[in-house]
Write the structure tokens for this entry.
Amino acid sequence: MTAPWVRQEASGHFILSLHIQPGAKRTEIAGLHGDALKIRLAAPPVDGKANDCLIGIIAEALGVPRAQVELLSGATSRYKRVRVRGVTADPIEKLAG
């Protein structure tokens, strides 16, 4: 996998580097932002609502249960790292469009 925003661990899980824009008009995957995948979230950055929305959009886009998407770092930052379990490289590569 050559995308700079995704890394595969030895366990087969994927780590995604994300740039988040909370409080957007709509929730959508917006493409690349430097070495990160940009995701716009309609949820505000209050009380973990944006993080919850992020996990939901990633799970839905990859067709996995929410329990298989884990926020690793950046709970209060726009830059986040997320681990996804139980998915192959094909749907991951299609995220950026």
In short: The CA atoms of residues 31 and 97 lie 7 Å apart.
